[in-house]
Amino acid sequence: MCSQFNFKRDPSLNTSALNAKRTCHGVLSDISPETKLKNTIVSKGGRILASAALFSVLLGGCSAMRSWGMKMTSPDQPPGPPLVQNCGIVSIGSPTKYVCGGKVYTGFQLNKLRQASKRRTAIHSQPIEEREK
Amino acid sequence: MKKSVPLMILVLMMVMPIAAAVQAQDAGGAGPMLRLYVDPSTHIVYTQPGKHRRLLAEIPRAMLNGSDQQRTAAQLRRNQEQLSTLAEQNERLESSNRELTRQVAEIRPAWENYIENFQNKFRVGTLVYGDYRLYTHTGFQPQELTQLTNPGPGNNLYNSFDLTRTYLNFYFFPTKDWTLRLTPNLYKTIGSSNVKVGTSTAFGSNLDGDLGVRIKYANLRYNDLWAKVPMLKGGTVAIGQEANPLVAWEEDLYGFRYVNLTPWNYLGLSSTQLGVSMEGPIHLFGSEKTYFEYNFGVYNNASFHAFEQTNTKEVMARLTAYPFGAKWRFQGLGVTGFYNYGYGNTTPDSAQLPTALKGGNAHITRIAALLHYTAEQWGLAGEFDYGNNAFSAANLFSGSGPADAFGFTTGPAVTTAVPWNAACSPAKPCYSLFDTFGPQTAAWEAILNNGQAREEGFDLFGHYHIPHTRLTAFGMYQWVMPNDKFPADPLDFQRFVVGVSYQVNEFLRFAFDSQNVIFYHNQQSVPVSTLARYGYTPGGSLNGRLLPASGSIPLLVPRDTHSFFLNMEFNY
After folding, report:
1. Does A17 touch chain B (CB under 8 A)?
2. Of B1, B158, B270, B384, which residue is least crowded by CB atoms under 10 Å?
3. Closest Cα partner for B278 from B314, B315, B249, B235?
4. Residue B390 to residues A123, B242, B306, B457, Cα–Cα distance (Å)
5. pLDDT at residue B121 in the model
6. Contact B281, B290 (CB under 8 A)
7. Does A104 touch chain B (CB under 8 A)?
8. Greatest mean pLDDT among B6-10, B111-115, B216-220
């Protein structure tokens, strides 16, 4: 009941009544029937709002929340080409398709990107003299 | 005078060769001749005859008129003519060569074009599933993967290497709007029917465990059905042997078909049907996002590896909604409904025979409702299943079943009257109640095959990629009530699969997992009178033996099954 009173200030209440609620020393009998009704309405409205918010969160699959440590829609992609182990499967077959960073790739495309990156890395890791050969 | 002698000699020296040539020419009948005369006393040469002069030589005038320069000029002209001829020939050759080069140049792009077209119009791939499995506890159960079988109770530590799928995927794209798919598939044959030939000869079956080949997919698809309707763009229509609206879609949603079957597939709904279907996305608000996805069709009642026997057909439809739109397949929150209505694969004359219960001739319904969320790194889905006559004893025993369900008897024969059947005799042997699966099989078939069974089930499956590793944890839980009209159905079971997958590269995955089937009710007996309401015939016959006519049938809860699998998937 206390927390309910603390939710919203009722402008119809005088200061002493408010203090009574805030400190929880007051009882419902201290409050006028109008105030009780308003509080009930506020309480119902709050519950509806809270329910709607909860439903939205459930419906949205918590996709907007970033505080979980695991990102829902944009995974941590290391620098370089997308790696198959970090991708999600969207269809299995010939070829299998994966989604990485919101883009859909076939297994062949991922393989090509990885091989190309591997070649570039190999070239850059060579001494300049050898590269020029 | 002295000067004239050398002069004459000089003249002679000049003239003699010419004269010789003139003689030669004269012999050929040449033109007018120049005649030279000489006075022998003075040695003077004259061009006219005279006194004391003698004919010295006759020279053709033509020879004397032509000079070396003229001959050289003539020769030059001839040479020039030859050169000109050669130049013309050379020009012709060069021209011919240029033409040939042009033709070759034209031929090469055509060859390249052919290859490009070939590449664009034909594709071949493969999909192979294999495994090694070990059962710590064996029992009767549906097959975990296509055509996987295992011995029943009492065969703990049974293990096996298997191939459960070997697709060769051939795709043909003759034009961009048509696609033909052909997919032969390797599968394990089970068969032991020997063949009698003539009056005294027989051949043994060679189908016992052979790897056979059968066509899994063979369909023609038209891709441009809604090419001019942006909202429906991407929709297709297909005819032939094709993936049904639910199973293949759900396999992709789950992502681990190489490990285990999806819920309705596990309960007997084949992944492939023969018929005609339409599928596609629905884009709303002019967006590229997919808000709905549909797939529906009309198919044979028979599965793709059975003869169609009915004069009816079955329908299947799936609709998936993505309330927030999906940029890629499955993305985000999705709600899916699936409906299937069909009939048992029975010929019309058999289906119309009057019976108390329709048994295998009854209609079949399958319903699935799914709520799913898919992200790149994880996915989770919950499913509710509901059906009628959709899980028969044949489905329950597709992986392993009691011999009594397949025409053989188990346990000792009872040949004297017993409390549960007074009719037992040597002429009419009975099944015993224990050390056999005969009465139990009859009870199980009554529970499942009576034509009024109602299935209910709940499933949960998902996966989670472990960050910065190649590992993905996955799992599936399935709770099946094969006939919820039967009180405390001893066949109610739960199945769960948990494992971890390792992605080797773009084409290869391995998984290690545990697969379990738990018939969770306490062991129980069921009165024959109860079973009789579900199609069990008290005192009836099964495989030539009489069944209990009264009392109860014991041990109706099958044993649990526990196994470990090492699975492999190769796709290319």
Report:
1. no
2. B1
3. B235
4. 60, 20, 17, 12
5. 84
6. yes
7. yes
8. B216-220
pLDDT tens per residue across span B525-560: 999 999 999 989 999 999 999 999 999 999 999 999
Judging contacts by C-beta atoms under 8 Å, the chain A residues touching residue B219 are none
Q: What's the confidence (pLDDT) of residue B365?
A: 96
A110 part of contact set with chain B, CB < 8 Å: yes
Number of C-beta neighbours around residue A112 at 10 A: 14
Beta-bridge mates of residue B33: B60
Nearest CA in chain A to B505: A84
What distance lies between CA B351 and its chain's CA centroid? Answer: 36
Residues of B (452-511) whose Cβ lies below 8 Å from A: 465, 467-470, 503, 505-507
* Whether the predicted pLDDT of B109 surpasses 90: no
Amino acid at B141: Q
Report CB contact under 8 Å: A73, B324: no
Separation of alpha carbons A70 and B375, rounded Å: 11
Chain-chain contact of B171 with A94 (C-beta, under 8 angstroms): yes
Question: How would residue B494 be classed by pLDDT, with cut points 50, 70 and 90?
Answer: very high
Shortest CA distance from B504: residue in chain A = A85
Q: What percent of chain A clears pLDDT 70, i.e. is strictly above it?
A: 41
ipTM over 0.85: no
Q: What is the pLDDT of residue B324?
A: 95
Tell which wins on pLDDT, B48 or B429. B429
Pick among A71, A85, A104 to test the B interface (most B CBs inside 10 A): A85
User: Residue range B78-92: average pLDDT?
Assistant: 90
What's the pLDDT score for residue A61?
A: 55
| pTM for the model | 0.73
Of B463, B450, B448, B455, nearest to B263 by C-alpha is B455
Cα–chain-centroid distance for residue B249? 17
How confident is the model at residue B38, as a pLDDT? 87
B451 contact partners, CB below 8 Å, separation of at least 6 = B357, B358, B359, B360, B361, B362, B389, B535
- One-letter amino acid at B26 equals D
* Binary contact (A92, B378; C-beta < 8 A): no
Residues of B in contact with A102 (CB under 8 A): 327-328, 376
CB-CB under 8 Å, A63 with B374 = no
Find the CB nearest B377 among A88, A92, A114.
Answer: A88
Contact (CB, 8 A) for B570 and B142: no
Tell me: pLDDT of B265 over 70. yes
A85:B503 CB<8 A:
yes
What count of other Cβ atoms lies within 10 Å of the Cβ of residue A91? 19
